[in-house]
Amino acid sequence: MAVAKSSFTCTDCGWTTPKWVGRCGECQAWDTMQEGKAGGGRGLGTVRQIKPVAIVGSSAAKPITHVSTERVAAWSTQVGEFDRVLGGGLVPGAVVLLSGEPGVGKSTLLLEVAANTAKSGKTVLYVSGEESVGQIRLRAERTGAMSDNLFIASETDLSTVLGQIDAVSPELLVVDSVQTIAAAEIDGAAGMPSQIREVAANLIRIAKERALPVILVGHVTKDGNIAGPRALEHLVDVVCHFEGDRQTSLRFVRSMKNRFGPTDEVGCFEMTGEGINEVPDPSGMFLSRGDAPVSGTCVTVTVEGKRPLIAEVQALVVKSSTPQPRRVTNGVDSARVAMLLAVLERRAGLRLSDMDVYVSTVGGVKLTEPASDLAIALAIASAVQDKPIAHNLVAFGEISLAGEIRKVSNGKVRASEANRLGFVRSVDSAVGDLKAALALGLNW
């Protein structure tokens, strides 16, 4: 009697091999090979013939101009910054995946979203596989997220979660998190790629059938990627990432994928002892302005998505006591600062090779775009010459290795935001070269 041969298939990409390997040869994922019977798949020459189904009634295709959009209009979650990232609110039947580092505040944010939606009159079901209902109640009391329309459940079984949906008939479902829910019919523990795929597929099916918005919380790996199969990000409609420095209270929600709106919006929040608060105008959090001007500080305008933000750069330059001068940065790219120091020494005549240079931002903001080059250079030059920069001056522009100041994107948006906050003087690409910009900024 012939012995049935077995093969091993990657649960992430479907690559098949007759022998077990620890790492998939196609997608390079570890521990994703599962054993199954060989011959289950069909070659290209033996395509199965599928009989067509007669299309009748409402399922028939229709011109796109005849499709009504009333049933898919977005409704607000009553959290303005979250609505901004979603593109105006939640769309019925949409599935949103929110990821972030442990402890950054994902559960706190979604409990706030669930409570505000419930207070608006909608029924909300909050399912947690990580906390008990008592723990959720304590956190809700502390943050003021209490409402009779908010139903909470602590479940880790998919069938029970689906039963809770049938019993409550919610208008918004929050699952915290998709990695903690498991289906009894699928082999493997919760969090395995096969389990995540099955759980997500069932929740997405429920969302589309009932026009039910679903928000899923996703864990991240040590590399910062969403744990589980990559197919999870393809299946959902919106992918958001919740990020922030644990040393500061500021948090950002960024949209990585959005089928209903732009992907360049950023929502700002502040973590407090009473929960999480919206920050509609976060520019003031990145400034530390005293009454008297201080040398080594310069204000710039950075753009997060479409939102302009005022940020302050501080620099300190002192005589080095070591053979190798120190270059310490916080909130800015250290390689970018090293390049700017070389340009300042070569093109502007500032002696920095024997100086310790410290560059930092205020409020924990991170400046990653080249538009902050000019502000960093002005702050360093101000610290070297001990000349304070005027309080009402703002600088933005990219500095080239030749000492030229290049134009940056969204120049008008940056200028209008600076004018709105009282910065009536600006140093930008219109000045021309670095020497002229330093002379203008330090002697204005």
TrEMBL record:
Transmembrane segments: none annotated. CDD domains: RadA_SMS_N (cd01121). GO terms for cellular component: cytosol. InterPro entries: AAA+_ATPase (IPR003593), DNA_repair_RadA (IPR004504), P-loop_NTPase (IPR027417), RecA_ATP-bd (IPR020588), Ribosomal_Su5_D2-typ_SF (IPR020568), Ribsml_uS5_D2-typ_fold_subgr (IPR014721), Rubredoxin_2 (IPR041166). GO terms for molecular function: ATP binding; ATP-dependent DNA damage sensor activity; damaged DNA binding; hydrolase activity; zinc ion binding. PANTHER family: DNA REPAIR PROTEIN RADA (PTHR32472), DNA REPAIR PROTEIN RADA-LIKE PROTEIN (PTHR32472:SF10). Belongs to the RecA family. RadA subfamily. DNA-dependent ATPase involved in processing of recombination intermediates, plays a role in repairing DNA breaks. Stimulates the branch migration of RecA-mediated strand transfer reactions, allowing the 3' invading strand to extend heteroduplex DNA faster. Binds ssDNA in the presence of ADP but not other nucleotides, has ATPase activity that is stimulated by ssDNA and various branched DNA structures, but inhibited by SSB. Does not have RecA's homology-searching function. This is DNA repair protein RadA. The gene is radA.
